[in-house]
Design brief:
By secondary structure, this protein is α/β, with parallel strands linked by helices. It has a single domain, classed as 3-Layer(aba) Sandwich (Rossmann fold). The chain is 30% helix and 24% strand. It has a 6-stranded mixed sheet with strand order 2-3-1-4-5-6, with helices on both faces. Helix 2 links the parallel strand 4 and strand 5. Helix 1 crosses helix 5. The longest helix is centred in the middle third of the chain and has 15 residues.
Length: 173
């Protein structure tokens, strides 16, 4: 089981839909226009099949107070942040620290996704690292953590996410 967490409005649902598109095709084609999405109220379970079946449980951002009740069967974690919103990045960092400190997730592999890099106001990886002190977070965490910049809207970086999911989380970006 892979958990997909992040604040409301960061693009989790679109990410899952795009990963499904990518895994069902040849992985190289144009993804086309983004499919319509609605805010997730509750949880969505999605199977992605490529080399092996991966079940992603997306939890709505509004569910953050009870995310911990879903940690039990989690072997990997996708944590999504909005790279175009510095204010929300700070709040998301606090959520991430809470998630990383959970004992049930101590052995989970973690991929932090910085989404919305297609927007003109997105922060660079260097700016994000500085703002949320990402190197310190990674150094202090028990988990193996990788990061990737993505655009769920246009597909940038999604093949890296799919590879991370398929290859047992060996990618370290």
């Amino acid at each position: 089981m892979c958990l997909l967490l992040g604040a409301a409005g960061v693009g989790k649902t679109l990410l899952v839909k795009r990963l499904q598109q990518l895994s069902s095709g040849d992985g190289k084609g144009d993804l086309g226009e983004p499919p319509p999405t609605r805010p997730t109220v509750g949880t969505n379970l999605t199977d992605i099949v490529a080399h092996r079946k991966i079940t992603i449980r997306e939890l709505g951002g509004c569910m953050s107070p009870i995310w911990s009740s879903y940690y039990g069967n989690c072997h990997s974690l996708l944590f999504m942040m909005d790279a175009s919103n510095p204010t929300q990045l700070s709040a998301s960092c606090m959520q991430l620290l809470g998630v990383l400190s959970a004992e049930e997730l101590a052995k989970a592999s973690v991929l932090i996704l910085f989404n919305k890099i297609d927007l003109p106001c997105y922060m660079t990886m260097e700016e994000i690292k500085s703002l949320i002190r990402l190197p310190d977070i990674i150094a202090c965490a028990k988990q193996n953590i990788a990061t990737v910049e993505v655009s769920a809207k246009n597909g940038t970086g999604l093949s890296t996410v799919l590879l991370w999911l398929q290859d047992g989380h060996r990618y370290s970006g």
